[in-house]
TrEMBL record:
InterPro entries assigned: Quinoprotein_ADH-like_sf (IPR011047), WD40/YVTN_repeat-like_dom_sf (IPR015943)
Signal peptide annotation: 1-23
Record's keyword annotation contains Signal: yes
Name of the protein described by the UniProt record: Uncharacterized protein
UniProt keyword terms in alphabetical order: Signal
Species this protein is from: Bosea robiniae
Source taxon at top rank: Bacteria
């Protein structure tokens, strides 16, 4: 039988593509259709447990903020497929922490086009967007499928907030900085919710901790230590553990490139989300557009 060489080459290419496709793991969520790459091998892979595709990838959503609320992982993302567009329509996505199922989503206000951080206190969800802070009724927003704001505050931009976390009765504000001496600021939650219309400023800080440069997210573990994610574009990324009294770096661990916000679950696992491999950042060498779980005890410096 005579076989056309071109057909043989095409068949071989098909086998290679099929092999490559099989190498991409089957993960919960909607896999990207705009990029056929396998997931990149990342630092500290042995510490990473459950992995889910970040929601909305095929619609152009870029994940930024993350927090854990009970059995849910909440992700704030904005829509952009262009490198030079850093704002867009934004949504809050709710994922099952156990299996990655999409439980629902709702749109965020147009003024929150780059929702860099999320934090919860009781049933109030806080959303950060540089110079702005939104408090919303999370349960009612979930029930109605629409954002139900409780209050919106202006914030001194020297405090960010690029990202947020809570500890006790304080909401912590952090700015993303490439240079200088950034700080993490603790503001009483009562000041945020019942403090009138006066913008939140430096004078409202009850405690201040120095931050590493390129900080993208923050969260507190059960022992009270602060965990910070650090990334910048296509550069290597890190997780840093800080002393909660002084801000001194206690440990520093390599992390997947493009890592964004962080949140601790009740079981002591750390959750993170990455933007590397989203449509906006699809040209980076790292392809890891995932929501992922980290076991801190397995991290290697």
């Amino acid at each position: 039988m005579i076989v056309n060489r071109r057909h043989m080459l095409m068949a071989g290419a098909g086998l290679c593509l099929a092999s490559g496709a099989r190498a991409r793991p089957t993960l919960p969520g909607e896999a990207p259709t705009y990029d056929a790459r396998e997931l990149t091998a990342v630092p500290n892979a042995a510490a990473i447990g459950r992995r889910y595709w970040s929601p909305g990838l095929n619609e152009g959503y870029v994940p930024q903020g993350l927090t854990v609320f009970g059995d849910e992982v909440l992700i704030a993302a904005y829509r952009s497929t262009e490198r030079d567009q850093d704002n867009g329509p934004a949504r809050l996505f709710r994922l099952s922490r156990r299996d990655g199922r999409l439980l629902g989503s709702f749109a965020l206000p147009a003024t929150y086009g780059h929702p860099g951080g999320l934090a919860t206190a009781r049933d109030t969800l806080f959303v950060a967007n540089s110079g702005r802070l939104l408090a919303l009724d999370f349960k009612e927003s979930c029930r109605s499928g629409e954002c139900v704001p409780l209050k919106e505050m202006r914030v001194d931009k020297s405090m960010g907030p690029s990202f947020l976390t809570t500890s006790g009765d304080a909401l912590w504000f952090g700015p993303y900085r490439r240079e200088g001496a950034p700080n993490l600021h603790a503001v009483p939650i009562d000041r945020v919710l019942a403090g009138g219309e006066t913008p939140i400023g430096l004078a409202d800080s009850r405690a201040i901790l120095p931050l590493p440069l390129l900080s993208q997210g923050a969260t507190f573990d059960k022992a009270g230590k602060v965990w910070i994610s650090q990334s910048s574009g296509n550069r290597p990324a890190f997780l840093s553990q800080l002393d909660p009294a002084t801000g001194a770096v206690l440990a520093r661990y390599p992390a997947p490139g493009g890592i964004e916000d962080l949140g601790f679950a009740p079981d002591g696992r750390l959750w993170a989300v990455g933007e590397a491999g989203t449509q906006r950042w699809s040209r980076w060498s790292t392809f890891y557009p995932l929501v992922f779980e980290i076991d801190p005890a397995k991290l290697v410096a």
